Amino acid sequence: MLMDVTMKLAQLPVVLETTVQLGWPATTVNSVGLVLLACTALYAYPRTSVLGAILLTAYLGGAVATHARIGSPFFSHTLFGVYVGFMLWGALYLRNDRIRTLVPYSR
Question: pLDDT tens, 14-43?
Fold first, then answer.
């Protein structure tokens, strides 16, 4: 997530081109980068990690919707946000006792 933030805030040409190809104005890159930075910071801080995970899930849902709208390849592009979301929540499950009590598993 931090790599994506860095690329957005640096306004790399590839990021600006891709943003326009996805149907978003290039002027939104900084705003989206700052939102992603805030969500990632909340996720990284233990006391607000659940809120950060919820916000990052919403962010990734927007990415999925954007790729679905333009007809990107399904498994590689459209579902990529879902894959990241599973990893995000999986990592939170491993580091947060409250999440483990909410989502028990049987051995």
Answer: 999 999 999 999 999 999 999 999 999 999
d(CA 81, CA 65): 9
Residue type present at position 33: G
**Could you give the CA distance from residue 106 to residue 5 in angstroms, rounded to a whole number?**
37
Q: What is the DSSP letter of 103?
A: S
d(CA 63, CA 81) in angstroms, rounded, equals 6
State the CB neighbour count (10 A cutoff) for residue 59.
Answer: 19
Spacing of C-alpha 84 from chain mean position: 7
Domain borders along the chain are 2-102
Q: Tell me: the pLDDT tens digits for 40-51? A: 999 999 999 999
Q: Can you give the length of the chain in residues?
A: 107
